[in-house]
């Protein structure tokens, strides 16, 4: 297996041509699916260099949930056969839910109808239907229903993010600053183009964590605690 690294440089992802969704938990039969979605999903948005990939991985380990990086989501969105494989392993009721949610999204005037986004949305909704997953980037928090999704934003002061980027990529401070700027701009443009949203709008998120203040481990703990609180809130609604 050939490894490269995601935007935050510390979670290996597979090279082109290899399936990054190998960890999908397989078919869930109708009897075991209590509700749809079957559990809470965590959608993580992050500033470049805020250590989002590491924190997502640590939160996944603490919860025992699968983590799907931006690279994984992009790969799945581009692979029709992989999307169909994921959908085929869902119960029929969950597949119907995915179709209904997708149509609801497309009916919203602020959501792009670009074919690539539609394919991404279908994949994200399929993963969200199974629940107990962490999705990093690609606007997942705007694609999944807020009721069953913990929408997290990870931030850090710019100097800290530049330092982190410099260390991981072995760049000068000036080069690292340019990388941070480019990555932030790409993510901002993606959300603006497809969702008409600004990532720095604090009202979009359930939880915002300054990862420099708390560090990777405690930031992951905060995400886990918030996910558990979200589960309790859902149970209280039912």
Q: What's a quick, concise take on this entry?
A:
This protein has 238 residues and is α/β, with parallel strands linked by helices. 53% of the residues lie in helices and 13% in strands.
Describe the SSE topology.
Blueprint: E1 3-5, E2 12-14, E3 41-46, H1 52-63, E4 66-68, H2 70-78, H3 80-88, H4 92-106, H5 115-130, E5 133-136, H6 140-143, E6 149-155, H7 158-169, H8 173-195, E7 207-210, H9 211-237
Parallel strand pairs: 3-5, 3-6, 4-5, 6-7
Antiparallel strand pairs: 1-2
Helix pairs in contact: 1-9, 2-5, 3-5, 4-5, 7-8
β-sheet strand percentage: 5-15%
Envelope shape: globular
Tell me the structural class.
alpha/beta
Determine the N-to-C terminus distance.
45 Å
General description of the model:
By secondary structure, this protein is of the alpha/beta class. The chain has a single domain, classed as P-loop containing nucleotide triphosphate hydrolases (Rossmann fold, 3-Layer(aba) Sandwich), CATH 3.40.50.300. Helix content is 53%, strand content 13%. The chain has helices at 52-63, 70-78, 80-88, 92-106, 115-130, 140-143, 158-169, 173-195, 211-237, and strands at residues 3-5, 12-14, 41-46, 66-68, 133-136, 149-155, 207-210. The strands form two sheets. Strands 4-5-3-6-7 form a five-stranded parallel beta sheet, sandwiched between helices. It has a two-stranded antiparallel ribbon with strand order 1-2. Strand 1 and strand 2 form a beta hairpin. The longest helix has 27 residues, at 211-237. It is globular, with a radius of gyration of 17 Å. It starts with a strand and ends with a helix. Mean pLDDT is 86; it is low at 1-33.
């Amino acid at each position: 297996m050939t490894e490269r690294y995601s935007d935050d440089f510390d979670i290996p992802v597979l090279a082109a041509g290899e399936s990054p969704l190998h960890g999908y938990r397989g078919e869930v039969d109708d009897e075991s699916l209590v509700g749809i979605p079957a559990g809470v999903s965590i959608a993580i948005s992050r500033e470049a260099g805020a250590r989002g990939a590491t924190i997502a991985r640590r939160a996944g380990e603490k919860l025992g949930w699968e983590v799907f990086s931006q690279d994984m989501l992009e790969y799945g969105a581009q692979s029709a056969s992989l999307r169909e494989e994921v959908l085929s392993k869902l119960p029929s009721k969950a597949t119907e839910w995915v179709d209904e949610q997708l149509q609801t999204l497309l009916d919203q005037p602020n959501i792009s109808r670009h074919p690539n986004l539609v394919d991404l949305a279908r994949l994200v909704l399929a993963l969200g239907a199974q629940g107990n997953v962490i999705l990093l980037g690609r606007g997942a928090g705007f694609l999944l229903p807020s009721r069953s999704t913990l929408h997290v934003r990870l931030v850090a002061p710019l100097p800290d993010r530049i330092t982190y980027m410099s260390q991981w990529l072995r760049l000068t401070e000036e080069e690292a600053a340019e990388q941070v700027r480019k990555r932030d701009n790409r993510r901002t443009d993606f959300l603006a183009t497809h969702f008409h949203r600004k990532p720095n709008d604090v009202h979009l998120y359930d939880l915002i964590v300054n990862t420099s203040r708390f560090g990777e481990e405690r930031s992951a703990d905060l995400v886990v605690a918030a996910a558990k609180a979200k589960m309790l809130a859902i149970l209280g609604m039912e």
